[in-house]
Amino acid sequence: LWLHTAGKTTIPFLTYVSSMTKEYKTYSREDVAKHNTPKDLWIIIDNDVFDLTTFADMHPGGAYSLVEVAGQDATEQFYGLHRQEVLIKYMPKFKIGTIANEQPKIEIPAPGTLSKVPYAEPSYWLNFKSAYYKESHLRFRAALRKFYQEVVVPEAVASEDSGKNPSSELFQKMGKFGVWASRVGPGPWLQMCVDAGVLTLPGGIKPEEFDYFHEQIAHEENHAWGYPSFADSLGAGLVIGLPPVFNFGPDALRMKVVPEVLSGKKRICLAITEPTAGSDVARIRTTAQRTPDGKHFIVNGIKKWITNGTYADYFSTAVLTENGISMLLIERSEGVETTQIKTSYSACAGTSLITFDNVKVPVENLLGKEGGGFQVIMFNFNHERWYINSSVIRAARLVIEESFKWANQRKVFGK
After folding, report:
1. What's the pLDDT score for residue 13?
2. Is-contact 306 240, C-beta < 8 A?
3. Rounded distance, CA 62 to CA 66, Å?
4. What is the rounded distance in angstroms from the CA atom of residue 315 to the CA atom of residue 326?
5. Once rounded to an integer, what is the mean pLDDT over residues 192-206?
6. What angle in degrees, to the nearest 10, is found between the helix axes of 13-21 and 84-94?
7. What is the pLDDT of residue 1?
8. What is the pLDDT of residues 46-75, one digit of tens each?
9. What pLDDT does residue 8 have?
10. Residue 256 — φ and ψ, nearest 5°?
């Protein structure tokens, strides 16, 4: 039953918040006790009253477990089997009132709230001193956490189950809020996009005060919710695929591509790995041959296990040119074909096989010098590892938090 009912909420948190501010009737415990049959089934959880008459037959644990507590206070039974997210999920639909003259004893955190569980948050957020964090980092995390909880998580639940990639609407909301810009580190592109009205930064942070610890927080909050595939679908390709463009691309290419991607209107990925070459970058076989007029490269080859490649518009791609390994920005066009690869987690991350079949790419899309691709790749890997470390540490905190909460919440063997 725990495995079946421990799923996260599938409703927008705003729906839950509206249910908290809604006017409800009040009942006495004696009133609730009268509704104690399968065809008239009310229960109490904390000080809230729920009418589960129509839900009983749909209950994953069967109707009998609800009939057993019909008309009663089922708080202990509920929290012995369910996480609080289940209550949040069903509250807007089935809550009908509260118990008169009683106040809730169990806190349901509001969106953006910090966890009180030991080690669930970095020590600075628990009032310890830090040589690295300051007040702007507090504002930044609070704004991001609230945004994710209200805007991102609802779609995450559905996509993690269905395998669908994030909607364009969500990508653009995240772009406008400054999530994508926050995840590629400080640099002149932030001011450029803010000045152009493409985005703002979360928490009112100014481009000139944004640092790598703000970026770290952005990666952490993206991986704070327990949806690994959806977390990767949200810009894993962008975080590692866009830096080669703004660090090594020509000005005209940067001015075109960076605002498109950071606004969420276009998506990008990093295409290096091939069926026969992973970490051994020197073994790549995808070729890029110059046309006789010298204005284009003709690209042929295969890339594999490319995160976000299924729905990417741009591909920062490692190729073999006449002078050695080079990096090209390839736009989705004729000859570019992407095929979804089934992986051990949800398909919404868009992991793909990419085929380049005589793809024509302008020489202006060269990232760095021809033959200098290996240096570009190694430079880019530094930032990629920073992103991965930040994300994994936050995911580990989530594991600790959930374990602490469940160990303290569940009663077993009478304890």
Report:
1. 46
2. no
3. 8
4. 13
5. 92
6. 60
7. 23
8. 999 999 999 999 998 899 999 999 999 999
9. 40
10. -85, -50
Q: Which residues contact 289 (CB under 8 A, 6 or more apart)?
A: 297, 298, 321, 322
Distance CA(100)–CA(102), nearest Å, equals 6
Q: Using CA atoms, how far apart are residues 348 and 230, in angstroms rounded to an integer?
A: 6
Q: How do strand 268-271 and strand 314-321 relate by DSSP bridges?
A: parallel
pLDDT, tens digit, for every residue of 144-179?
999 999 999 889 888 887 888 899 999 999 999 999
Q: Under 8 Å CB-to-CB from 343, ≥6 apart: which residues?
A: 229, 349, 351
Q: What is the mean pLDDT of residues 372-394?
A: 94
Query: Rounded distance, CA 206 to CA 188, Å?
Result: 12
Is residue 358 classed exposed, middle or buried when 0-12, 13-18 and 19+ CB atoms within 10 A define those classes?
Answer: exposed
To which residue do tokens 């249910």 refer? 19
Cα distance between residue 369 and residue 387, in whole Å: 26
Contact assessment for residue 227 and residue 156, using Cβ atoms and an 8 Å cutoff: yes
Instruction: Check pLDDT > 90 for residue 400.
Output: yes
HSE, CB side, 13 Å, CA atoms: give it for residue 222: 27
